[in-house]
Specification:
elongated; 1 helix; mainly alpha; transmembrane helix; 37 residues
């Protein structure tokens, strides 16, 4: 499997995907932390 390259894919779509991924990651992290604590 190739290493993941985080690079905005030219314009709006890449930027949107980056924002979406970071938002989802933070939500998942919050849920996991709440379950652990």
């Amino acid at each position: 499997m190739a290493p993941l390259q985080v690079r905005p894919l030219g314009g709006g779509v890449g930027c949107l995907m980056m924002i979406l991924i970071s938002v989802v990651a933070s939500v998942v992290l919050t849920i996991v932390l709440n379950l652990l604590l």
